[in-house]
C-alpha cells in the first residue's frame, strides 16, 4: 500500500510525461491516445462528483458530454461556413475560439443538468438510474432526427478550435490543453470534496434523513453537485469534439454513459484519481488487447467483474490506503 | 410563568383507522426536562416525528420559539434550533466522530454551500467540535469512524451532534435504549446538566432515568395524553398505574 497522494502524483506525472516523450520520438498516435485518456478522465471526474461523492448513479451523463460536443461542433461549423447561427432577434455568429466555446459548452451542460437533475433527483435508486438514462436517450434521438447538424451521420468540422498562442492542430499542444483542464477539474474535485459542500454531499449519500434533521436539505446539495458534475462532463465533450473534429449522436448514446461509470468503478469510486486511472486502464487495454483479439471486451468484462467482486475501491483502492478521513 | 419554547395544540394523526396521535396538547418550558412515557405503540415516536417535521399532522398546530412551525419542513425546524436524536442511532457511518460533529456545526451555522475552504482545517469549527465531543465524553475518539464505535459511543456521538447544533430544544427519542445500567446512569448525569442549556423533550422507557431526570411527565396511551404532572403526581396517579406502570390500582 502506498499513500494515495504519491499514487496520484505518479499517475499524473506518467500521463504528462509519456505523450511528451512520444511527441519527441515522433509518435503522434500515442499522443492522441493520451489525449483521449485525459478527456475521458475529465468527463469521468465530472461524473465522480455526482456518483463518487453524492452516490448518484447517473446513467445519463452522455447527455452532458454530447451537449458539450454539439455546442463545440455547431459553433465551429457555423464559423467555418460563415453562416450566423441566427439573425433574429439577435445576430449570433459561430466561433472557433476555444475560450468562447468552453464557457458556452459548460453553461449549456450546467443548464441541462439543472433541468434533468431537478426532475430526476426527486427519485432515487433504480428509478434515478432509469430516469437519467431516459433523458439522455431523448437527447440522443433528438440529435439523430435533427438533419440540420448531420442527424445520424454526425457533423464534421475539419479544424480544431483556436487557442491564443497555440497551434491546436499540433497533437502535443492540444494534449497540453486537455491535460491542463483535467488538472483544473481534479483540483476542483479535491477542493469541493474537502469543503463544507463535500461534507454535506457525502452525508447526503450516507444518511439523507440525518442531514435533513441537522438543517440541510439533501435535494439542494445533490442538485448543485449534479450541475457541477454536468458542467465538467460537458467541457470534456467539447474537447472530445475538437479532438476528432467531429460530433455525432454516439456522444449521446447510453454506451458512453455506461463507459463513464465503468471508468470510475474500475479506477475507484469517489477517489480523486479514480477516473484517471480508470480511463488509462480502459483505453490502454482497448489498445493492446484490442489489437490482439477482437473479443477484448470479454476479457475486460472479466477484469471489471474481478474489480467489483474483490477490489471494491477499484484500482486506486487496491493500491493506496484511503486517507480521506485523516 | 415564562413562555413555553414548544407548544403543541390538539395534534391529531391517524394511520387508517388507528389514531396514533389523538388530540395531543403539551408544552415545554425553558429549563425543564419533560418526559414522554407510555407503553409500546402509544404513539411516542409518531409524536416526536411530527414535532421534528418528518411527518405532517392531520390537524392541530405546533409552535416553536415564538412561531407557528406546523407547515415548516424538517430542515427549517432544525435551523430554528431544534436538535433531535433517534431511537436507533443515526449518524453518517463512514465519517469520523469529528466529521460528524463538524457536519452538525456546519449545518446549523453555515449551510452546505461553501465550495472551497477545507472544512477540517478550519480551527474555529474543529475546536468547537472537539469541545462538544469532550462534553459528550468521547474525547480521544475523534478520528474513529462512526461505524466502528460501540453502541454506547454512538449514542454519545448523537448527543455531541445535538450539542453542536446549539439548540433551543432537544428532542431525545429513547437515548438510553440499549445502554447497560452503567451507561444509562452516566448518560443520565450528562442529560441532567443539559437542561440548563435548552429544555429537553425526552421519550424514554428507562423509568429510573425518567424519575431521576424529569421535571414533568406526560403519559401517552393509545395516542392520548392521559396525565401530565410532576414525578410525584404521576407516581400517585391511579389511571397511570393501571394503564402503564403495570400495577393494580
Automatic annotation (TrEMBL), chain A:
Topology term for the membrane: Multi-pass membrane protein
Domain of life of the source: Bacteria
Signal peptide: none
One Pfam family here: BPD_transp_2
Gene Ontology terms: cellular component: plasma membrane
A GO molecular-function annotation: branched-chain amino acid transmembrane transporter activity
Location(s) in or outside the cell: Cell membrane
Keyword Magnesium carried by entry: no
Protein's name in the database: Amino acid/amide ABC transporter membrane protein 2 (HAAT family)
Keywords on record: Cell membrane, Membrane, Transmembrane, Transmembrane helix
Residues spanning the membrane: 35-55, 62-79, 99-119, 126-149, 172-189, 219-240, 260-285, 297-320
TrEMBL record, chain B:
GO cellular component terms, A-Z: plasma membrane
Gene3D superfamilies the record matches: P-loop containing nucleotide triphosphate hydrolases
Domain ABC transporter: 6-247
InterPro entries: AAA+_ATPase, ABC_AA/LPS_Transport, ABC_transporter-like_ATP-bd, ABC_transporter-like_CS, BCA_ABC_TP_C, P-loop_NTPase
Molecular-function GO terms, alphabetical: ATP binding; ATP hydrolysis activity
Alphabetical keyword list: ATP-binding, Nucleotide-binding, Transport
Keyword Cell membrane in annotation: no
PANTHER family cross-referenced by the UniProt entry: ABC TRANSPORTER ATP-BINDING PROTEIN, CONSERVED COMPONENT OF ABC TRANSPORTER FOR NATURAL AMINO ACIDS-RELATED
Protein name: Amino acid/amide ABC transporter ATP-binding protein 1 (HAAT family)
Organism: Aliiruegeria haliotis
